[in-house]
Amino acid sequence: MKGIKLAYNFLRIGILNEFQYRANLYIQILQTFIALATGLIGLQLVFSQTTDLAGWSQPELLAVLGVFTIMGGIIGAAIQPNMERLMGEIREGTLDYALTKPADAQLLISVREFRLWQTVDVLTGFIILIIALNQMQWAVNLWAVFGFFSALLMGAMMIYCFWLIITSIAFWVIRVEEIANLFEGLYAAGRWPIGIYPNWLRYSLTFLVPVAFAISVPSEALTGRLTLETWLGALALTVFLFTVARIIWSFGLKNYSGASA
Amino acid sequence: MTSVISLQKLAKHYQVPEREAGLKAAAKGLFKRQYKNVKAVDEISFEIQPGEVVGFLGPNGAGKTTTLKMLSGLLHPTSGTASVLGFEPARRSHDFLRQITLVMGNRNQLSWDLPALDSFDLQRAIYSIPANEFKSRRDEFIEILEVGDLVQKPVRNLSLGERMKMEIVGALLHKPKILFLDEPTLGLDVTMQKRIRTFIAEYNKRYGATVLLTSHYMADVEALCKRIIVIHHGKLLFDGNLSQLAEKFSAFKTIGFTLDNSNVDLSQFGEVVSTDGARVVMRVPKEKTSAITSRLLNDLAVEDLTVEAAPIEDVIESVFAVKKEAVE
Asked: Which DSSP string corresponds to A139-173?
């Protein structure tokens, strides 16, 4: 419970910090708007040629775009800023203060930053999702709601673990920003349901960079495609990735030498 | 009394990649890397008793920071053991971390854009300090350091010295028993250095805390530390008090006297450091001090003659000039 209290306190500081930079809110709104417009134009182009894409109808794909936007907001608000800060601190050897605190170091480095204005994306994503569900004439269904939220949570967790693994590599290889940049490119592939990609790409997006699980599984839940097997698979992969991330992080910490003075 | 900090042949070696300058050497380094084993800390041992304030001295690169980092659990020793409050620091047990603090003069941990008060609240959450205890200690520190009007300003708007005061308040809110202070007065003006020094002494007195302090300002060390540990090239060079340090390392002593007749050639006695009216201060080789003193008294009409150890800065200079071979 101390962990939750700690996370809350950091969240509070993060939000206080963000209020110092109100201009960022307007920039963020503009960015969200541009990303949304690009996404919608893409969908329009596809559906001017065909009525379904690998079995997904237009409103269903709009739902995928919604989930993609929500997840992007979560990553931008809570995951990416923490990992970027960690990467810099490992490189410069300034992780010291985080490690001299009587709290779990992994928890500490994962909650220190919070970009409030990025949650504009989360909000926008939910609006898109509601519009899409409305077009699909969606009826509330307990399994779908549970599946959606749990899959969203597991997806965020998997992407967090993926980032932490990549970042921990910085303990051995000093420059990992390039690998991290690669993630952004791969994440963009999540805009479309994973089923439309060729097998090799589908597998790498699923297991190497868990974008498929993070975006496709919640979308499947909402469109009645989610099976119990997939859900259990997602759960297993989350636990597995978390364990791996924790192990690599701990080994990395042992390797941390910190730049002198 | 049992010691609170104990080092037994503590060592830290680094593998540092090494190559010659230039493109060709860099390309070669892609395939086969040459490593050099650097002994940052080379088997040092000492004990510190509860409540002691110890000055930890050495030139840049002597291994001071590396030692402090091993003692605060940031670095794993290559060999040897360290024990702080009975804990092995590298295990980073929460019970251990709750009782220590690390302040580095060149780093800051307070949120840059927020008033220090907000960052203090965060410390409270991290260390689970009870609310009333937290408040009274925070206000006590704020009062001693006279920073009441600064705690509500964003940290970025504070001067370097003001910021350091805040850093120190933040680092002591959990009432640590052991303070590792790595150049806490770095870059501060004399007044600010003094203020921080007084505060550390006050904290040590009030809470009986043990302090291990590194500083390049000898005034810090003279004012705070009864005991000095000097390391150089990773080796322990000296452990004792200031006058012993001067005794051991200074090649010179300072003789001061008042001279009636100023038309005397003093260069035959030694190097004149300063003259202020009739008052003369000379620097003479240590082993010749008594001979020169008696000659001065016999040959010249001198008054108020004093013999003093060389100033601490000079002593430290000669300590730091010790060659690596001499240490090994």
From this structure: ---HHHHHHHHHHHHHHHHHHHHHHHHHHHGGGTS
